[in-house]
């Protein structure tokens, strides 16, 4: 089973009030040196069967039509080598 990840972020020209709130909170919590924060979404899709170029293209279409709002968000699709469950199992969690 393969995992395909879709990362969705607001486009650079779109205001990000959640990111600004995090940026404002960091110094109050004692963290310094952060100059900007953008908050987005991450979708992890477990895919059964072989991960072909056609399957990755279908995930890209899912991202464009459902997982993101292309008017105000950009997205990236990438394949993870190991699922989180596999990593946790190999670390004995």
Automatic annotation (TrEMBL):
The keyword Cell division does not apply. It comes from Nocardioides taihuensis. It comes from the Bacteria. Part of the phosphoribosylformylglycinamidine synthase complex involved in the purines biosynthetic pathway. Catalyzes the ATP-dependent conversion of formylglycinamide ribonucleotide (FGAR) and glutamine to yield formylglycinamidine ribonucleotide (FGAM) and glutamate. The FGAM synthase complex is composed of three subunits. PurQ produces an ammonia molecule by converting glutamine to glutamate. PurL transfers the ammonia molecule to FGAR to form FGAM in an ATP-dependent manner. This is Phosphoribosylformylglycinamidine synthase subunit PurS. It is found in: Cytoplasm. Keywords: ATP-binding, Cytoplasm, Ligase, Nucleotide-binding, Purine biosynthesis. Pathway: Purine metabolism; IMP biosynthesis via de novo pathway; 5-amino-1-(5-phospho-D-ribosyl)imidazole from N(2)-formyl-N(1)-(5-phospho-D-ribosyl)glycinamide: step 1/2. It is an enzyme of class 6 (ligase). The keyword ATP-binding applies. Part of the FGAM synthase complex composed of 1 PurL, 1 PurQ and 2 PurS subunits. Its EC number is 6.3.5.3. Belongs to the PurS family. Pfam families: PurS. It catalyses: N(2)-formyl-N(1)-(5-phospho-beta-D-ribosyl)glycinamide + L-glutamine + ATP + H2O = 2-formamido-N(1)-(5-O-phospho-beta-D-ribosyl)acetamidine + L-glutamate + ADP + phosphate + H(+). GO terms for molecular function: phosphoribosylformylglycinamidine synthase activity. HAMAP family: PurS. The gene is purS.
